[in-house]
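Homework help board

Subject: predicted structure for assignment chain

Our instructor gave us this sequence and asked us to write out the predicted structure in token form, then describe one feature. I got the tokens but I'm not sure how to describe them. Can anyone check?
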Amino acid sequence: MEKATLQLDPKYYKGGTFTLVAHNLSKQNGYIKSAKLNGQKLERPWLTHDEITHGGTLELEMDIMPNKTWCMAGD
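My token output:
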């Protein structure tokens, strides 16, 4: 999917929505090249529950080859 949006239940979470966008996604481009969470560079391959429930956007830049330096310890 190029885009998916979670509607957060306002009874429990104030974030409204959490959206995932995969830029440049195709059958060949199945690897994450880089990621941004709410416009800020994300250097880890996970999200916390709080990050999701506060709402926002996770943007993934996809590529044909794996980026072996993305999310590596010490970077």
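Reply (TA_rk): Your tokens look well-formed. For the description, you could write something like this. Residues 48 and 54 are 10 Å apart (CA to CA). That's the kind of observation they're looking for.
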